[in-house]
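--- STAGE predict ---
source: upstream dedup step, 1 unique chain passed
mode: sequence only
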Amino acid sequence: MKVKSSVPNQSTDRKGALELGTHTLGFPRLAGHFVTPPLSCRAPSGQTEVANLSLLRLAKLLAARLWASLFFPINWELPASPVLLLLLAAASVALLYSGWASRHSPLAWFSLCAAVFCALPASSQLLIGAGLQKSRLLYLPSVGLALLLGVACASLTSRRAGLACAAAIIAFHAGALRHNLVGWQHVSTLSRVTCDSARQFARSPERQVVAIGLPGSIRGVYFFMNGLDACLGLGDGGYWQVQSLPPGAQPPPGFQGDVLRWQESTSSLAAVRP
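--- STAGE serialize ---
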């Protein structure tokens, strides 16, 4: 008779724990996140963006653009208030002070490397401009940033100094968020007005529209480069065929639908009459 031992098998437990952790953390999905984006995004030449990415450009993106967008997430296409600039100065001092105090901390270096590692999948798309467009790609690296800031503030010997640095950083990010939301609110209102104007001008029975010069983004916020057909469809519940053309272009010869042109001076749509 074989007696089953009640002592757990350590190798079996480790294997089970590894499998549980792998499925819990969603390793297949995480692996897809790290492999799919750089291999699926293609440049106009037809090659993947990773194939066109030089080491010098990669170093610039990961060493400069990444940290500038993470540490100072300000939409510079909007005028910054004096209060925001003061908060920026205070946060810069707090970052330098706490960062110097944590320079020997292994956990701080781990957090920094984690942020860079999480940014690698989208490294070919990290050319984030002054309007913070594409900053959505930094959601995962921001976890490493949060860990880094926490470790840096906790590394200060004085509790009062750590709390002061943390308060300065949090106040700055709160001010930056409020500043950036002004741009989103402005473009949201402009989108609603533009959509209403498009419905007013689009009257052709062919349900075809040519939109000339619609910007892809305004103040760093995505606009109606895409989505005008859905906007028109929401008005009458039908399907509209919309063709977007660059500024200065002319509608195709023999086009029988409506032609709308974006007026940059007034930030509005206008109907082009034949």
